[in-house]
Specification:
292 residues, 7-stranded antiparallel β-sheet, 4-stranded antiparallel β-sheet, 29% helix, 20% strand
Length: 292
């Protein structure tokens, strides 16, 4: 059983607080390789040679306007030719952590998103306070109903350099917003005065897993190098509940033999489970409309 930086079982900490920080999920022999691969894909994204990128000025997909880059999408894409990303995603200790957090066996895991969060070059950029799958304008009744839907998955940030970009409101993942929180998320969503906010400070090599219903935002500082691996995995129990949130990122490129051939053995069953989910959700092309 894996424990967090406070020696608490990671699944217990995530359930209670909505986030959990874990050490050493990157094998030593992969650390420098991941940094080099990130430098390569970031260069391609900044030069416009890689079109799957997150652009300053837009928080959620699609990213179609702008030139300053704050994220690189689809690290597993065969055209990037960086096999270390798939090797790490399929590494034993990372998968062990995921299995413990989602209470699932390996064959029940579902391959989903794997992206990179980086510092913009031209200007700082703040994301708004949000829950990933619930709109800020949602009524209290709608919010309460959506909070009862099990996640059947988890998401995480793994920092290759010290990273203090993420802010969360601990324990906000299982309740409706307070009046003050609702007012901020709707009327002042980039506020620095969110009651109870906590800045998540990661050292290089640390990982934070967090509930996508936790109130959170991020602040991207152009002057500080950032390369943080940002990914999520689900389980087969999620069915169509995860389909819209995942497939809004346009994963049609994953529905090919050329992609499958790049995966380590440990990711083949999770990949098959992704295709099955998309079929059952009526989205066999692995695409859906944006949520936000």
């Amino acid at each position: 059983m894996l424990t967090d930086i406070n020696n608490i079982p990671i699944d217990q900490a995530l359930k209670e607080n909505g986030f959990v920080i874990i050490n050493n999920l990157i094998p030593e022999d992969m650390f420098s390789k991941l940094k080099e691969a990130c430098d390569s894909v970031v260069s391609k994204a900044r030069k416009g040679e890689w079109k799957y990128r997150r652009l300053v000025g837009t928080q959620f997909p699609p990213w179609t306007e702008g030139t300053d880059v704050w994220g690189v999408q689809h690290l597993l894409h065969p055209d990037l030719h960086e096999k270390v990303f798939a090797e790490w995603l399929g590494s034993s200790k990372l998968l062990e952590a995921i299995e413990q957090l989602v209470n699932a066996k390996h064959d029940e895991l579902q391959l989903e998103l794997f992206n990179l969060l980086i510092n913009p070059e031209d200007s700082d950029f703040d994301l708004t306070w949000h829950r990933d799958a619930i709109k800020a304008e949602a009524s209290e009744e709608e919010e309460k109903a959506k909070l009862t839907i099990p996640h059947y998955g988890t998401q995480w940030n793994t920092a290759l350099y010290d990273d203090a970009c993420l802010y969360v409101v601990p324990k906000s993942h299982r309740r409706v917003r307070t009046e003050a929180e609702r007012d901020i998320t709707i009327n002042d969503p980039k506020s620095n005065e969110m009651p109870g906010q906590l800045r998540v400070e990661l050292k290089a090599g640390q990982t934070v897993f967090y509930d996508n219903n936790i109130l959170h935002r991020a602040s991207y500082v152009s002057s500080q190098k950032r390369a943080t691996l940002h990914a999520c995995m689900g389980t087969i129990q999620g069915g169509h509940h995860r389909a819209s949130a995942i497939l809004q990122h346009d994963l049609d490129w994953m529905n090919t033999d050329s992609f499958k051939d790049t995966l380590p053995y440990s990711l083949l069953k999770p990949y098959t489970n992704l295709l099955t989910m998309a079929q059952k959700a009526g989205m066999p092309n692995l695409r859906s409309e944006p949520i936000h």
